[in-house]
Amino acid sequence: MTSTTHDSHESDHTTTAESSNPREPQGTPVLEVSDLNVSFPSEAGSVAAVRGVSFDLYPGRTLGIVGESGSGKSVTSMSIMGLLPQYAKVTGSVKYAGEELLGKTDKEMSKIRGKGIGMIFQDPLSALTPVFDIGTQLVEAIVTHQKVTKQQAEKQAVELLDLVGISEPQKRIRAFPHEFSGGMRQRVVIAIAIANNPRVLIADEPTTALDVTIQAQILDVIKVAQRETGAATIMITHDMGVVAGIADDVLVMYAGRPVEKSDVFSVFSQPRMPYTIGLLGSTPRPDVSSDEPLTPIVGNPPILVDLQDQCQFAPRCPVAQPECLSGEPKLLPLADAPKGVSHATACIRSGEIWDQKINGERLFQVPELSKDILAGKPRDERKVTLHVADLKKEYPIMKGSLLKRKVGTFQAVKGVSFDVREGECMAIVGESGCGKTTTLLEIMDLQPQSGTVVLNGQDASTMTKRQRRAARKDIQIVFQDPMSSLNPRLTVREVIAEPLQSLGYEGDVNKRVQELMALVGLDTSQIDRFPGHFSGGQRQRIGLARALATNPSVIVLDEPVSALDVSIQAGVINLLEDLKRKLGLSYLFVAHDLSVIRHLSDRVAVMYKGEFVEVGKVDDIFDHPQHPYTKSLLSAIPIPDPQVARTQKRVKYDPDAVAAVVVEKPESN
Ligand code: SF4
C-alpha cells in the first residue's frame, strides 16, 4: 500500500518537474531545524504543540508553513526565535549558521534576534513601542547590532523607510506609531526586521489583519526586503493564496506535525496527503466561476493532549483505514515523486493518491446541495425583498475637550442604491472604512437618516414603532464573532428560543428549536449545552439557527466566516448556499475575503469612500471589472495557484489618474 508507482504518469512527472520547479535549493542551509518538539503544561495535561518538525532553510528561498489554528506553525517560529515562555518544554535542534540556538540564554539570543534572524509579527502595534517615534526605534535596532554613529544610523533608518515604501521618510521618521495606518506600521516593522541585513526573515501571519490591497503591498515589500538582503524567509500563514504567491517550498502542518512537504508547485498541483487535498478543496477560488460546492473537511482538529499513537487526521480523513490507527505515520519521501522533486508526506496511502483521487475516485466527495426552489425563475420576476435608494449616513465631526462643537460632517455613506431579490445573495465589498458596515447597520435599523429602505414592500420611513418591531423579524443579522454574539450563560435551546419567545411564537417552541438545529446541521442532542462547548463553526451555525428562528426573508451577514479556519469555513459557506436554495432567502453580505464573496454571491457592489463605484453580477465584476478601483482590488487577491499567482499583474488605483496603472510585482529571489 505504501509505494504504488504511477508509471503512466512518469513522463508527466518529469515535464512538470523540469518546467515548474527549475530551482532546487542551493548552497548550505542557513537554518536547520531537526526534530523540534514543544510542549506546554496545562490543567488537562501536557499540550504537545509541536511534534517532530524538521526542515532546512536555504539562502534566498522562502518556505511557507501553512496550517490552521493550533497546527503548531506559530509555536515553531517562536521556538526558533527563542521567544517561548520559560515553562515551555523544547527539545530537538535549531541551528542558525551551524550554531545551536536551543539552550541559549535570552541575552545570547538577543544578539541573534534582529541581527541574524529578523521577525515580522502579525500585529505591528504590539511590535512597536507607542511612546517612541519610529526613527528612535529604528536607530535603536541599528546601533544595538552595528558599530555606527547615531547620525549614520539615522541615515540608514531613512533609507530603510524609503525601501519599504514610506513616502517622505525624512519627515515621517519623527512620527509615532499611532500616527500611521496598520499597513504603514507593518512596513515599519519590516524595516526594523531587515535593518541589520538578517540572513533569516520570519514573517508570522504578517498580513492577516490587513485589507487586501494593503496585504498585497506588504507581501511586495517583503519580497523587496528579501531581494535586498538575500535573506532566507519563513512565511507562516493560514492563507493558501499567500503561500501560492510567495513560497518556493511548502510545509503543511496538522496537529503539531508536518504532514506534507515539497516545492510549492508540487504541493498545489499534486498534493498527496489527504489533509492538504482537503485544505485546497475548502479554499474558494477568486479567479474562477464555480457552481460546485466547496468540499469541507468534517470534524475538528484534535486537542493536543494525550494523543493516541495514530494518524491524527484519521477521524477526519475520508479514506482512513484500520492501519491508520496503528502508529502515527512518519513524514517520508515519496518513492514515486518526479525526478528532481523532493516530496514527502505523512500518510500511509500517499502512494495510491494521484490527481486528488484514490482508485480513480475523488478523496473528498462534493456535497450535494438542496434543490433551488427558485431555479429557472428569472431575476426580474423574483420579488424584491430589500430595496435601498439613495441611502446616506453622516456623522458630525466634533472638536473641543469640554465644550464640544461641531466643526464639520463626515459622510460615511453617500447615497447608495440597490435591490436584493428573493433567493439572491448581494455582497458589498470594499476596504476598512469604506462604509459597508455602516450601510448594513443603517438598513438593520430600519430608520435611515436619509434615503429609502423598503423591506418586502414596506417603506421603513412610514412604519409605526409597532410595525417596525414586527418588520425586524423579517430581517436578521449574523455577526462575525459567534462567541461574542451569543450569550454564554444561555443554553443553545435558550439562545435559539429567545427570538421566538420575544415575538410571541404560538407553536411548540422546543420543536421549532430542534427543527432549526437540524436545519443548520447541529446535533439536536446537544440542545442543552452552552455555546462555550461548541467549536467556532458550530457556534456560527447556532447564530444562523437563531437568525432563522423568525423565518426572515432577508439575512444580513457581516463577515460570517472570517473568524473560522478554512476547512470549517467551507462547511458554513455550503450551509449558507444550501439554505438560500432551500428557503429562497435573500442575503446581504459583507466580507473582506473576496474569494468567499465570489463563491457565495450572485451580485456584488464595490464600495469606495462611501459610494458604490461598480455594481453587477458577480462573474461580470470579477471577470471584467470596469472601474479602476475594482481592478485594483481584484488584482490584489491572493490566488491559491502558484502558476496563476506568479503571472498575476497588480493594478494600483490612483483616484486622480484617468486610468488604472498596471504595476509589476517584484520578483522574489
Ligand atoms: S494515514 Fe490514513 S488516516 Fe492518515 S491521512 Fe493517510 S489515509 Fe488518512
Query: What's the N-to-C terminus distance?
Result: 39 Å
Number of helices: 23
Radius of gyration (CA) equals 26 Å
Going by CATH, the architecture of the largest domain would be 3-Layer(aba) Sandwich
Which structural class is indicated by helix and strand composition?
alpha/beta
CATH topology of the largest domain, anyone?
Answer: Rossmann fold
How many strands, which pairing sense, and closed or not: the largest β-sheet?
8 strands, mixed
The CATH homologous superfamily of the largest domain is termed: P-loop containing nucleotide triphosphate hydrolases
- Under the CATH scheme, which class of the largest domain? Alpha Beta
Strand percentage, roughly?
15-25%
Average the pLDDT over all residues and give the rounded result: 88
Number of domains: 2
Give the uncertain stretches in residue-range form: 1-23
Strand arrangement within the widest β-sheet reads 6-7-8-3-9-10-12-11
The helix content, as a percent range, equals 25-40%
Bound heterogens, unique: iron/sulfur cluster
Label the overall shape.
Answer: globular
Q: Based on DSSP secondary structure assignment, what is the total number of beta strands? A: 27
